[in-house]
Amino acid sequence: MPFVLITGASRGIGYEFLRQYSSDAKNTVIALVRNKSATEKKVSEDAVLQGRPNIYILQADITDYNALKQAAADTAEITGGSLDYIIANAGLVPKFDLFLPIGELGNQPGELTKTFREAFEINVIGNVHLFNLFLPLILAGHVKKIVTITSGLADNSFTNQWGATPGALYAASKAAMNTVVAKFNAQFKKDGVLFLAVCPGPVEVGHYDGATADDLAAVEPLLSIFKEYSPGYERPKAPEVSVRMMRDVIEASSLEKGDGGAFISHYGNQQWV
Ligand SMILES: NC(=O)c1ccc[n+]([C@@H]2O[C@H](COP(=O)([O-])OP(=O)(O)OC[C@H]3O[C@@H](n4cnc5c(N)ncnc54)[C@H](OP(=O)(O)O)[C@@H]3O)[C@@H](O)[C@H]2O)c1
Asked: What is the pLDDT of residue 90?
């Protein structure tokens, strides 16, 4: 009877995690979202998800410590005090650095500072508080897996080898979170908790919606890199495909196999695309 917590379950990859985990009636899925009523409405109007009795929706902005604390208490009420999986998927994917290299971001210093701070608050600090607040429940659970959704753009070898310039601030926040994952692993592996940072690969969730012709031209070199890096690559995967692959990786990974604190992709290795 696994209990699964998914953050950022309102849309995109998180919503697909919600759809897939809740498709198994044995799972109880807690969706942590910023706007509870909007997500409840979305689920109630979703022909596949509506009426699933194993879905609970809780509200917290991941930057709001007190709201997270309340969510941990509410989760304990639902589960009886334990939790098996955390899928820490909520994240800021800023538009500001999506198309421009870091040297050009410097032309807008105020926006650079603001976006970088937001990325750290959401993608790093929020998750640190989330893990600390929910760890007592995980320690009382059976499966004990805490998964962060990261990005291969945080792999410095990839950036250096392929000259991948976009997403500098975003990638730095994900790299910081990868280190946080390793530090949590260092402390809690003795308690049997597996921490993982898993990259979904490029996934189509609308991040390029509304992009101008100039934006698309700016991101074209990254797409060319993906094609050279991964011959056969054509376009981002559908969330359904990526989430299924990530779930397989999550199931297959274990402390016994040496996966504690690993930074890996939906392929289970460091092939990012
Ligand atoms: N899509 C890709 O190609 C890709 C590639 C690599 C990694 N990732 C990672 O995958 C994860 C999901 O991304 P996505 O592509 O599905 O993005 P998305 O469609 O933009 O979804 C982001 C999710 O995070 C939530 N969120 C953002 N800020 C939050 C906050 N302060 N508090 C609570 N929730 C917050 C959003 O909630 P609201 O609906 O309330 O805004 C939304 O549910 C992210 O960690 C992202 O970095 C994505």
From this structure: 98
